[in-house]
Specification:
With 149 residues, this protein is an all-beta fold. It has a single domain, classed as Jelly Rolls. The chain has no helices and eleven strands. Strands 1, 3, 4, 6, 9 and 11 form a six-stranded antiparallel beta sheet that branches. A five-stranded antiparallel beta sheet has the order 2-5-10-7-8, with no helix packed on it. It starts with a strand and ends in a 6-residue tail after the last strand.
Length: 149
């Protein structure tokens, strides 16, 4: 497995230059490192912030599972979407409201093949809310299909 978490990960993360705002590091409650977050008050409604994970060393023709922690805290905080570079038109994963402030786990199967995905994009869309944040943490890539819960 490949650790792409932000504190000690080995992956290549890039802020998108053509979006409306950047994701920023935020300290974890337990004090062990940080996660990437977009506070609810950044930007205007429907503004987008994109964080790209560049997948340069993946072997083609095998499948991977992208596992990550995410949190949508606050009322009307916005949307979190995940896109694969070879499927830019529609998100492969989307969440638009948090039931509470808890961290949850997202899983996405990445099938490599003829059209190998060169990047994964985490996109935050600003909602109407003024409090809370959208956060992403503990991004891990494992080879093979996603494990069952």
């Amino acid at each position: 497995s490949v650790d792409c978490s932000f504190s000690r990960g080995v992956c290549d993360w890039k802020q998108d230059a053509d979006d409306d705002f950047d994701w920023n590091p935020a300290d974890r409650d337990r004090g062990d490192g940080y996660y990437m977050a977009v506070p609810a008050f950044v930007g205007h409604k429907n503004d987008m912030g994109r964080l790209n994970l560049l997948l340069t060393d993946l072997r083609p023709k095998s499948s991977y599972c992208l596992i990550f922690s995410y949190r949508l805290a606050g009322e009307k905080v916005g949307k979190l979407r995940v896109f694969l570079a070879n499927k830019k038109t529609a998100p492969v994963w989307e969440e638009n409201k948090g039931k509470d402030e808890k961290w949850r786990t997202g899983k996405i199967e990445i099938f490599q093949g003829a059209e190998t995905s060169k990047s994964v994009t985490f996109e935050s869309e600003r909602g109407k809310g003024k409090t809370g944040e959208i956060g992403v943490d503990n991004v891990i890539l494992i080879s093979g299909p996603c494990p069952e819960d």
